[in-house]
Write a structure and sequence with these properties.
Blueprint (H helix, E strand, L loop, with lengths): L7 E4 L2 H11 L11 E7 L2 E9 L4 H4 L11 E9 L7 H16 L5 E8 L6 H5 L3 E7 L3 E3 L6 E3 H6 L3 H4 L8 E8 L14 H5 L4 E2 L2 E2 L2 H5 L6
Parallel strand pairs: 4-5
Antiparallel strand pairs: 1-2, 2-3, 3-4, 5-9, 6-9, 7-8, 10-11
C-alpha cells in the first residue's frame, strides 16, 4: 500500500497546530482567528497541518459565490507540511479534510484560499485538489516594513492602525492568487473562473519562492 494512503487526518488542538505552523510554514506565523485545525499523521507522528477559519475579509469574499450567507464558507488560511510525507500527500489530506467538513459541518458550502506568489508558490496544490482559480493580482497587500524589516499584510496594518504609513512602503514583487472549492456543487461562482495557463501567461508562476515556468513546475516533486 502506498504510504500516502496510510496518512490519517484528524482534528487537533490549536496549540499543537499553531506550534507546528510556526515551525514549518514559510511565514512562521499563525492566523489568529483559525478555529478548525486538522493534523496529518503518518506512523503516529504529525507531519502536516491545515488550519481553517472565518475569512479575514468576509464582506468582500462573501460576494464571490451567489447567494452565500454569512457562515456558508470558510477559509483555508494555513497549509503547512514538513518534508517527510511522500508526493501527493497534501492533495490527499485536503480531500479528506473537505470530506470531514462536509460530514460534520454541512452548513459550509465552499472554501476559499490564497496562494502567495511573492514568497512561496502559485497554488499548485490547490489546482491538484480541484480548486478553481478566480483571481490573480499584482501584490500590493504585502509590504516590507523598512524599520523592522518584517513583512506586514494590509489587514494587519489596518488592525495595528498604521495603514497610512503602510501605504508608503514598497510592495513585495509578485502576485497573489485566489482559489475557491465548492463543497456544494450547486453553488455558483459569481466571478470568472480563470484557466490555470493564465498563471504562466502573465509570469505569476512560483515554486518555493522562485519564479518558474509551467514546464519547470511539473518537474518538481511537490507543488505548493
Amino acid at each position: 500500500m502506498s504510504l500516502v494512503k496510510e496518512i490519517q487526518v484528524k482534528v487537533i488542538p490549536s496549540k499543537i497546530a499553531n506550534d507546528f505552523v510556526i515551525k514549518n510554514h514559510y511565514s512562521g506565523k499563525v492566523v489568529n482567528n483559525s478555529q478548525l485545525h486538522f493534523g496529518c499523521f503518518l506512523g503516529g507522528a504529525l507531519h502536516g497541518v491545515m488550519s481553517f477559519g472565518p475569512s479575514i475579509n468576509k464582506k468582500g469574499t462573501i460576494r464571490l459565490v451567489k447567494d452565500t450567507k454569512w457562515n456558508d464558507f470558510i477559509e483555508l488560511n494555513r497549509l503547512a507540511f514538513d518534508q517527510f510525507l511522500p508526493k501527493y500527500s497534501e492533495s490527499r489530506c485536503i480531500s479528506i479534510a473537505i470530506k470531514l467538513i462536509k460530514k460534520n459541518a454541512p452548513h459550509i458550502k465552499w472554501i476559499i484560499s490564497f496562494a502567495d506568489g511573492t514568497q512561496c508558490g502559485d497554488g499548485g496544490i490547490y489546482r491538484a485538489s480541484g480548486f478553481s482559480l478566480v483571481g490573480i493580482v499584482k501584490n500590493t497587500a504585502l509590504r516590507l516594513n523598512p524599520t523592522t524589516n518584517k513583512l506586514i499584510h494590509v489587514i494587519q496594518a489596518h488592525h495595528l492602525k498604521i495603514a497610512k504609513e503602510f501605504r508608503t512602503w514598497k510592495p513585495c514583487t509578485g502576485y497573489q492568487l485566489k482559489y475557491i472549492y465548492l463543497i456544494d456543487k450547486k453553488c455558483i461562482i459569481n466571478v470568472p473562473i480563470l484557466p490555470f495557463s493564465k498563471i504562466y501567461e502573465i509570469g505569476a508562476g512560483m515554486y518555493k519562492g522562485k519564479k518558474v515556468s509551467s514546464q519547470e513546475e511539473r518537474q518538481t516533486a511537490r507543488v505548493v
